[in-house]
Amino acid sequence: MATSSSSLQRIVQMLWTNEPTPTIGSVVCLGTSYPCNGDEWPVDFIHDVESRVWLRYRNGFAVIPKHPDGPSPLKIGALLRGTSIDLNGFVSDIGWGCMIRTGQSLLANALMISRLSREWRYNGSVEAIEQDVLVLFYDEKDAPLSIHRFVEHGSIAGGKLPGEWFGPSTVATCIKALVSESGLDLAVYISDGMNVYEKALLKVATGSSDETDEWQSVLVLCGLRLGIDTVNPVYFDGLRSLLDSPQTVGIAGGRTATSHYFYGYQNDRLFFHDPHDPSPALKYGVDRSLLESVHSRRLRELPFTETDPSMLAGFILKSREDFESWKTQMMSLPASNRAINITDEPAPVVSCEIEEDFVLCHIHPASDTSLSESNADALCSIDDGSTS
User: Fold this and answer.
1) Is 268 a catalytic residue?
2) Which of 29, 98, 174, 222 is catalytic?
3) Is 274 among the residues known to form the active site?
4) Active-site residue among 274, 308, 322, 384?
5) pLDDT digits (tens, 9 = 90+) for 262-294
6) How confident is the model at residue 79 (pLDDT cuts 50, 70, 90)?
7) Known active-site residue 98
8) In sequence order, which residues have a C-beta less than 8 Å from that of residue 243 and are 6 or more positions away?
9) Which residue of 2, 232, 297, 337 has the fewest CB atoms within a 10 Å radius of its CB?
10) Helices 147-157/168-182 angle, 10° precision
11) Out of 29, 276, 308, 384, which one is annotated catalytic?
């Protein structure tokens, strides 16, 4: 009964949440700052928010077969919303897919910025280039970045069964695998927790550490834990720095058991798109009005003090200059306040053994191979089953 009450509470909270009111002070959307007089939101800020892709719960897509040992499609949240039910599997991700949807939102906005630039703005209708991005995320079995493909790779990357909640680490590894399989002109680097290793990142972006080699756009995914139960105040400036960066593509995270797509902030509150607002599935031949529903001017807020500390931050680095700028900004805060730390490579591993009256220490340099193989395991320190 506790699960039912929790689901009902989240639905009521979503339906009755008032839009935030402006206060005096700059307001930020994906690295762009807008002055706010406290009387009304800046028009350019709202237009910027509307231009961000919002992917959310969908209903009525091709069935994702259930697993004998996995959850049942009969979920209380889905029943309360009147969602269609198929006993053979899932035809909606209501109640379990929000971390996947926020991960898709992060990736979709990265692709939009990569192809159309950060300055692009939505003009009221979906353009051809944008549609080329959105079709990758359609709720179809053969769409390269569909929820079907995330679920398929989730079983490989994190042992997740259909209908189970994903955490940040599983979403990150799914994004990397699916982008690679899709043949997109984008590389993906996954951090070692808060640690980014420059040599490994440069190798992903260029194929080597040679400064003259051609740079491929790289999506940097950082699985972070900025506290225990909520974000520790010592990391508030670090959290702001993630969204202040001109290279940011947003953050997937939120409250416990609830994931949002964060794109901005003002003072000590985050702004987000909420995936918990269901809509009919996006399919081939979809009506244009449904396609245009990926844009919204509505603002939602979450105080820093109520934010779950586990999150997935993304950055798009389109050039070496982007990397140097991003590195400078991330490292500008005192070490104790940083959300991300950038070093050349992992620290050597020190192992010790006792021999008679002496302790012998051996230093083993970390290799790029061991780093790449450990990325997924390193991210597993993040709570990987707390979002839906």
Assistant:
1) no
2) 98
3) yes
4) 274
5) 999 999 999 999 999 999 999 999 888 899 999
6) low
7) yes
8) 28, 30, 31, 250, 251, 262, 263, 264, 265, 270
9) 2
10) 110
11) 276
